[in-house]
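note to self — DONT lose this again. spent like an hour looking for the file last time. sequence + predicted structure for the chain T wanted, 127 res
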Amino acid sequence: MSTTKIKTAQLWGKNKDDLKKQLVDLKQELATLRTQKVAGGNNSKLTKIHDLRKSVARVLTVINATQRSQLRLFYKNKKYLPLDLRPKKTRAMRRRLTKHEAGIVSEKQKKRQMHFPQRKYAVKAEA
């Protein structure tokens, strides 16, 4: 059973199986500490429980982050991305026209610009 806090830097190098095994061990240790606490253990168990909970969170964070990075690599050149991998932004920004769509000029607009160009005046407007 581990008594020290787990450093996140150590977790990044491990593979998925090692992380899953470590997660199971931490959860078992946490369960035993919780039963000891209910049975009437001393207060040092409370800090250990706190540290274990945070260590479980660190392991889960590393697992999820590596999984997301693998998914990003898998979907890199695909046409569609899963919703949770797309940039969040705001609802209005997501619905806004793309630069390409905004720059498109219709046939009617092209004709209108060609036949009725902006007039050029010789007189300067006073401000």
